[in-house]
Known about the structure:
- The structure is a homodimer.
- The first copy, chain A, is mainly alpha-helical.
- Chain A has 2 domains: 1-65, Orthogonal Bundle (Multidrug-efflux Transporter Regulator, Chain: A, Domain 2), CATH 1.10.1660; 66-100.
- In chain A, 65% of the residues lie in helices and 4% in strands.
- Chain A contains 4 helices and 2 strands.
- Chain A has helices at 11-18, 22-30, 48-62, 67-99, and strands at residues 37-38, 44-45.
- Chain A has a two-stranded antiparallel ribbon.
- In chain A, strand 1 (37-38) and strand 2 form a beta hairpin.
- The longest helix of chain A has 33 residues, at 67-99.
- Chain A starts with 10 loop residues before the first helix and ends with a helix.
- The A-B interface holds A 3-4, 6, 8-10, 12-13, 17, 39, 45, 48 and B 3-4, 6, 8-10, 12-13, 17, 39, 45, 48.
- Chain A binds a DNA duplex through helix 2.
Amino acid sequence: MSYKDKKVISIGAVSELTGLSVRKIRYYEERKLVFPERTDGGTRKYSFNDVERLMEIANKIEDGMQTFEIKEAERKALKKEKVRNQMLRGQLNAAFRMRK
Amino acid sequence: MSYKDKKVISIGAVSELTGLSVRKIRYYEERKLVFPERTDGGTRKYSFNDVERLMEIANKIEDGMQTFEIKEAERKALKKEKVRNQMLRGQLNAAFRMRK
DNA sequence: CGTGTAAGGAATTCTGACACG
DNA sequence: CGTGTAAGGAATTCTGACACG
C-alpha cells in the first residue's frame, strides 16, 4: 500500500487541499461517496486518494450531477470493467487452448 | 511537489505511523531535526518525508547517537555532496572546452 | 437535494515546567 | 541529554438539528 492510500489527513487539511467546506466533505461521506477511517476518538482520517476522489466528485456536482447519479455512474463503470476483464480472460484461454 | 512533501499529517497520526511518542517528535523539532508547518491555530503538520526522516532519526538515537551528532553528520554529508558536484561540473566544463 | 450555520460537547494539540538521570 | 507526565488552555472535530430552496 502506497502513501496515497494511507488514511492520515484530518478533515481540516482535506478542506484546505480540496477547497471544499467540511460540511460538503462530511455530506459526501453520508452519501457513501468517500470512506474515511476514524481514530479511536472518532475523528475522520482521509488519504490522498480520498482527496483526489473528492475533487472529482466536486467537479461532477458542479456539472449538475447528483450524488446518487455519481454513485450509479461508478457502479456501471465497475460493471463494464468486469465484463471487459471476463472477455479478455476468455480470449486468452481460447488462444492458449489453440496452442496445445 | 509530490504527495510526500505535502504537510498535512497531524502529530497524532505521525506518532501512529512512526511509533514515536509525541513528546519525542516535538523534541526532535526543538533540536532542529524536523520542520513541520503550522496551521493558523498553531497545530503542527508533517509530510510523509518528515515521517521517514523521523524514523531514520529514531534509528540513530537508538544506536546511541545524540541529536547534535545527527545534525552534524547531515551537515558533513551535505558538504561532501556539494564538493562532489563542484568536481563533476569542473570535469564536464574541461571536457567541453577540449572539444572546441 | 445540497449546503450553511449555531450549539454543546468531546478529542486533539499546544506550551512551559518539573522530574529523572 | 532525552523523555515522561500533569496542568491549563486553545484549536479542531463531532453530531444532530434547523434553515433555505
